[in-house]
Design goal:
The chain is an alpha+beta fold. Helix content is 33%, strand content 31%. It has one domain: Alpha-Beta Plaits (2-Layer Sandwich), CATH 3.30.70.100. The chain has a four-stranded antiparallel β-sheet with strand order 2-3-1-4. Helix 1 runs antiparallel to helix 3. The longest helix is centred in the N-terminal third of the chain and has 16 residues.
């Protein structure tokens, strides 16, 4: 499983996380069942401004677009108990691949 995390170019301001998950064919429904809780718990974080999830045709690809107040809020999200429990312990083992990019808006 490859994980690629960019630094988002540094600086302050909003930080965007784009995560692309490819579930194994036999696990994509289980992954889908965990995502609503992950989204809800993430949106409860002070620094999470939005959290949108998209599912590709065929059902095994998930695209998460997360917007945070700043890079510190992203770090706090990744250190949260619900991230460790849901993403690292429950979801990641069910994925065929996972890529994550940290981005910053070019134009605001």
């Amino acid at each position: 499983m490859a994980i690629s995390i960019g630094d988002g170019g540094g600086g302050g301001g909003k930080a965007v996380v784009l995560a692309i998950w490819h579930a194994r064919p036999d696990t994509h429904e289980v992954v889908a069942k965990h995502i609503p809780e992950l989204r809800a718990r993430s949106l409860e974080e002070d620094g999470c401004l939005s959290y949108d999830v998209y599912r590709g045709e065929g059902g095994s690809q998930f695209v998460l677009v997360e917007v945070y107040r700043d890079a510190d809020a992203v770090d706090a999200h990744r250190a949260s108990p619900h991230f460790r429990d849901l993403v690292l312990e429950r979801i990641a083992p069910l994925l065929a691949s996972r890529s994550v990019m940290r981005l910053q808006p070019m134009l605001e």
